[in-house]
Amino acid sequence: MNSQTNLRKRFYIHTLGCKVNQYESQAMREILLRAGFKECIAKEIADIYIINTCTVTHHADRESRYLVGMFHRINPGAKIVVTGCYVEKNADEISFLPGVAHIVKNEEKGRIADILDPQPAASIPQGSFDAPLTITGFKDRTKAFVKIQDGCENRCSYCKVPLVRGALKSKPLEKVVEEASLLAASGFKELVLVGICLGAWGRDFFPSEAAASVGLKEISLIDLLKALDAVPGDFRIRLSSIEPKYVTDELIEFIAKSKNICRHLHIPLQSGDDEILRRMNRPYTTTEYRELIGKLRLAMEDIAISTDVMVGFPGETDANFSNTVNFLKSIVPARTHIFRYSRRDGTAAGSMSGEIGEETAKKRYYDLKTVALMAAYIYKEKFINKPLEVLVESKRDRQSGLLTGYSDNYIRILFNGPDAAMKNMAAVKIEELTMGHALGRLCKDDRFAEIA
Predict the structure, then answer these.
(1) Continuous H helices in 96-207
(2) pLDDT tens column, 396-440
(3) Contact (CB, 8 A) for 299 and 275
(4) Which of 65, 132, 365, 401 is most buried, by CB atoms within 10 Å?
């Protein structure tokens, strides 16, 4: 490979969307580096721009199109590669955007080196769902994401993700354990298990009928967690997001007994009103969700529950929204991600009447945001002056210059301390709370030469 060829193989990756996309961008990065491509830190000098897109909302679609135009203006002679969920249903419109040289479907991400340079890449290890994408590190991150599955078996009426990610595809247990072992040995102190439908891991390995006919037990997420719990090393495991129906009594009991799994579950709610949940095609009621949270808190008193809530779903009345506000107040989540409904073509909700006006949806967003901040404050208040085990990030907080990190139960704490604490677990006490921040103090620790 001559120097001129090397000069034309400088790439820059921009990632939108979820943790699965972030994982897949890291996998593509490693594939390209092994194939002799060079990564650019400065986007202005790249020869290849890879945009790993999201399509959860129309804003994500618009941002993807904007990035194509921006990179083309920065470097009109560069190749632009568009991949990710947006291309799965919108490839035709993307192909007409200036500068787009390649459109890469999600299942083709493992072939990225071959797509960009077919000649020398024939011997490069390729990734697919038969030979899943894997990573050996995670650029610029203290935590490492481990993708364990793809695809979704649920059909929420508002969601485009099943249309672009397809059927369930679980990564084999031994592959997940191998990857987790490598990352733990590399020094990562937290491994975050990610997937499109995390709780459904393993369901595609042994369909119930086939398993029963040969006397096999259906494999589940608990089997994977047991295997990961046995991996040697000083690290913790966090589940990224899990739907309510997969949080079984058996899973709750296992997490409660495990020393390695974080006392934090992100369980999407979407609405605190039963009528809206039914229209969303969510398979539970508010009563069932509340009972689930009760079980978790009975098993683990201090567990953090974070959630997603949507406002402005078609037909959502003031009364429906008021029910959601009151429900959120009653369950007091540690953190709430609030987002406005976005109509997606091809979904059941896309043809529903009763679309909510922009101003009404915006007001509901901010009203609920206030409730969510108060709930988070109430949760964090219980931990003032209690030492929490915090994984310290590798970069300081931009605004304050303080160290920052997340506790096992997902409280972000800002505190003073030396750079030596970065990328390490450290005991930190929360001393002060604001509506947006937890301010703490680093406990004395002989591992760090100076304690501020």
Answers:
(1) 112-116, 161-165, 173-185
(2) 999 999 999 999 999 999 999 999 999 999 999 999 998 889 999
(3) no
(4) 132
Which CATH fold would you assign to the domain 272-285+304-381?
A: Transcription Regulator spoIIAA (3.30.750)
**Does domain 134-262 bear CATH number 3.30.750.210?**
yes
∠ CA 335-64-267, rounded to 5° = 20
Phi, psi of 372 (to 5 degrees): -65, -40
Contact yes or no for 329/371 (Cβ under 8 A)? yes
pLDDT, tens digit (0-9, with 9 covering 90-100), for 358-385: 999 999 999 999 999 999 999 999 999 9
Among the listed residues 393, 39, 29, 389, the one whose alpha carbon sits nearest the alpha carbon of residue 188: 393
User: Domain 3-123 - what CATH class?
Assistant: alpha beta
State residue 2's pLDDT score. Answer: 44
Report pLDDT for 133.
84
In this predicted structure, what is the pLDDT of residue 121?
Answer: 43
Do residues 89 and 55 touch, judged by C-beta distance below 8 A? yes
Asked if 115 and 128 count as a contact pair (C-beta separation under 8 A), the reply is no
Handedness of CA 223, 143, 443, 265 (dihedral sign): negative
CA atoms of 97 and 82, how far apart (whole Å): 10
* Cα-based distances in Å from 154 to 195, 199, 349: 13, 11, 14
For 26-46, what is each residue's pLDDT tens digit? 999 999 999 999 999 888 899
Strands ordered across the beta sheet of 304-311: 264-266, 304-311, 335-340
Strand order in the sheet with 144-150: 169-170, 144-150, 190-195, 236-239
Contacts of 440 (CB under 8 A, 6+ apart): 388, 390, 413, 414, 415, 428, 429, 430, 431
Enter the tokens of residue 49: 């721009």
pLDDT per position as a tens digit, 108-146 = 999 999 999 876 544 445 444 445 788 999 988 899 999
Q: What is the mean pLDDT of the chain?
A: 91
